[in-house]
Specification:
Blueprint: E1 9-13, H1 17-20, H2 27-31, H3 50-53, E2 73-76, H4 88-93, E3 94-96, E4 99-101, E5 104-106, E6 109-114, E7 117-120, E8 126-129, E9 153-156, E10 167-169, E11 191-195, H5 196-209, H6 214-227, H7 237-247, H8 254-261, H9 264-268, E12 274-281, E13 286-293, H10 311-314
Parallel strand pairs: 6-12
Antiparallel strand pairs: 1-11, 2-13, 3-10, 4-5, 6-7, 8-9, 12-13
Helix pairs in contact: 5-6, 5-7
Length: 326
């Protein structure tokens, strides 16, 4: 069945439409970029924040950020330039702005910059009037026959009418099946509950936390990083945890790691997250990435480490007490 040829897999949960008739899922339907969405609808269900994108290094071991300062224009010669040097795990996990997936180049351009000011629309496909003195966009539903003679336009084919999207989830999707065949409960990509990479990371972390010779966990982390095309770096608790978060992203592991490390409150309370917008700069003839804030800060109380014990159960034993925070 689909997915059985993956030699990394140790324990798989398979989905087989032909045999079961309904034992499938809808991952592809939900996460496809809007531009190549299924006729059924849905798309863009999982967007990655800048915080997550920044975790992936470049192949030289550095970790440049596309737009580190909020509200500052960062110019690039192409849509793909900010992501071009990223490690292989990045490109295996996410569809980047301006890259080809399935049948098209996927873009998430929110608008244009004209005279140093951003001009944004509210449509998925839109054309912007860039005549001198113009400060508004014109939406023509992507129909060039509606241009006015003598007008100058720049195309903005946004995949999200709310903008703020430059990546889409690739991991766990089917890169082969045509999107016109994707519908509710038609995805068959196997779910790997356990794979060899996780076993290696478990081993490295256990070795380090038990105080074994650093060379033991170093060799394992080097192996994981080498496969991603990255150089060796001195092993530490932070390095091991970073490798887990990147290698096992979107595999339902990270939340339980944060719980196990007891670091939710310190890592996420009052933490501001960020997204990125992409614009075409009419005056400089290049692309601009603009980092923006994603809502306000959030609080993660320590009660999130535990489950609530129902009152009916607490009443059965005087020795039972509520978990902290409940």
């Amino acid at each position: 069945k689909q997915g059985d040829s993956n030699t990394e897999s140790i324990f798989n949960r398979g989905y087989d439409l032909a045999t079961s008739g309904n034992y499938t899922h809808s991952q592809d339907l939900l996460v496809l970029p809007y531009y190549i969405r299924s006729a059924v609808g849905y798309s863009n269900a999982l967007e990655s924040s800048c915080d997550f994108m920044d975790k992936f290094e470049t192949t030289d071991g550095s970790n440049p950020v596309a737009a580190p300062a909020v509200g500052t224009f960062y110019h690039y010669p192409s849509m793909t330039a900010p992501f071009a040097g990223k490690e292989s795990r990045y490109h295996g996990t996410l569809i980047s702005n301006g890259t080809f997936f399935k049948t098209a180049i996927i873009t998430g351009q929110k608008g244009v910059i004209l005279g140093g000011s951003t001009i944004t629309g509210s449509a998925y496909s839109q054309f912007f009037d860039t005549k001198v003195g113009s400060s508004t966009y014109k939406q023509f539903n992507a129909d060039p026959t509606k241009f006015n003679a003598g007008d100058t336009y720049v195309v903005g084919t946004g995949n999200s009418n709310t903008g703020d999207q430059t990546t889409w989830l690739k991991k766990w999707t089917d890169p082969v099946t045509d999107q016109t065949l994707i519908a509710d409960y038609k995805s068959r990509t196997s779910w790997m509950d356990l794979r060899y990479g996780e076993v290696l990371l478990d081993y490295a972390e256990a070795s380090f936390e038990l105080g074994h010779a650093a060379s033991e966990s170093q060799a394992i982390i080097d192996k994981i990083r080498a496969r991603a095309g990255l150089p060796s770096i001195p092993v530490s608790r932070a390095v091991i945890r970073h490798e887990r978060l990147v290698e096992l992203s979107y595999e339902n592991k990270s939340w339980w790691d944060y719980v196990r490390w007891r670091s939710i409150t310190s890592d996420f309370t009052n933490r501001q997250e960020y997204n990125m917008d992409c614009y075409w700069d009419v005056d400089t003839n290049d692309y601009v990435y603009l980092r923006i804030t994603n809502g306000g800060t959030r609080n993660f109380p320590s009660s999130m480490y535990y489950n609530n014990i129902p009152s009916s159960d607490l009443g059965t034993d005087a020795l039972l007490i509520k978990n902290p925070g409940y």
